Amino acid sequence: MTALPDIVEITGPTPGQQLRKRMFGHQGFMIGAVFLVILVLIAILAPVLAPHDPYSQSLGDRMVRPVFMGGTWEHPLGTDHLGRDYLSRLIYGARISLLIGTVAALISGLIGTTLGVAAGYFGGRVDAVVTFLINVRLAMPVVLVALAVVAILGGSLNVVIGVLGLLLWDRFAVVMRASTLQIRNREFVAAARAIGCSTPRILLSEILPNIFNNLIVVVTLEMAHAILLEAALSFLGLGVQPPTPSWGLMVSEGKNMMLFEPWLVLIPGAVLFLLVLAINLMGDGLRDVTAPENRN
Predict the structure, then answer these.
(1) Is residue 227 part of a domain?
(2) Bigger pLDDT: 256 vs 164
(3) Distance between CA 127 and CA 209 in Å, rounded?
(4) What CA–CA distance (Å, rounded) separates 217 from 226?
(5) Rounded to an integer, what distance in angstroms lies between the CA atom of residue 196 and that of residue 237?
(6) Which distant-in-sequence residues (6+ apart) come within 8 Å of 119 by Cβ?
(7) CATH code at position 154
(8) 16-20, 145-149, 164-168, 184-188, range with greatest mean pLDDT
(9) Running DSSP on this structure, what letter comes out for residue 206?
(10) Tell me: the pLDDT tens digits for 31-63?
(11) Cys staple from 126: which of 81, 122, 135, 208, with CB 3.0 to 4.6 Å?
(12) In 150-204, at which residue ranges do the beta strands (DSSP E only) sit?
């Protein structure tokens, strides 16, 4: 009797393995993610990594130049006009930028996503009200409103976060509304209604997972936008107040010496640019690797 051949089970990669493969294969995502992870670790480990107290002043060590401009390793990136170590303030400044960007994006994302999904799913009067609110918000210039509110309430970390969180929700609402309109009548949503699923369950289990990749992109864009707005407010003296280390504040404090000591402006400006670039690269990469057409 002829023996039957063994049945070999052929299995493909799991969805998680496919996602990891796409992530590691996306150059832009990897560059942005690596740099962002490094900055997050630097911010978390700031007390360990900072060579000096970022608030400690030493008038005898004012305006020490960085190592690459003839300075010493005692202050690798030099000191500012009050003798504070520039590297230490740069490291602690990462905490401020990441905190403001993350919390402001979460607040605006919660507001905008709720309004956008409700408008797209329910339509009718809900859509009309949300569209009106979006138009009102778009008619308000963000920078001018932020300047006015911060000037009235006073510049502080909590005020800046609250103002930016309440002003940057419009893009979330517009994108989420459009994305929800595209899928609210799809077969899987109709099937969920047919079997008696409640509206909250449909929104949470059917709508949100299918618009999540669009949400990722908006979150990263608004996080970068919030970081830049905080830097602009701090530069104008209406954001984070001294002596709190902030990259925008560091640029503002160094602008008077820019023609003589340009590194005072270039160093925090370059780090701010790299942070925003990394966030945008990672967001664009996440959009590519989580797109529905790549989930097969």
Answers:
(1) yes
(2) 164
(3) 21
(4) 14
(5) 56
(6) 126, 127, 129, 130, 131, 173, 177, 180
(7) 1.10.3720.10
(8) 164-168
(9) I
(10) 888 999 999 999 999 999 998 889 888 888 888
(11) 122
(12) none
pLDDT digits (tens, 9 = 90+) for 96-125: 989 999 999 999 999 999 999 999 999 889
Residue type, 223: M
Q: Alpha-carbon distance 72 to 64, whole Å?
A: 8
In a domain, 276, yes or no: yes
Average pLDDT over residues 207-229: 88
Q: Is residue 85 part of a domain?
A: no
Mean pLDDT, rounded, of the chain: 86
pTM of the model: 0.85
Q: Kindly tell me the burial class for residue 128, based on how many C-beta atoms sit within 10 Å of its own C-beta (0-12, 13-18, 19 or more).
A: exposed
Look at the chain and report how many structural domains it folds into.
1
* Residue owning tokens 């979460």: 106
Does residue 119 form part of some domain?
yes
DSSP annotation of 84 reads: -
Rounded CA-CA distance 113/208 in Å is 9
Written as six digits, the tokens of 280 are: 């945008």
- Are 249 and 234 in contact by the 8 Å Cβ rule? The answer is yes
The whole-angstrom separation of Cα 113 and Cα 121 is 12
Helix (H) or strand (E) segment spanning residue 243: none
pLDDT confidence of residue 291: 66
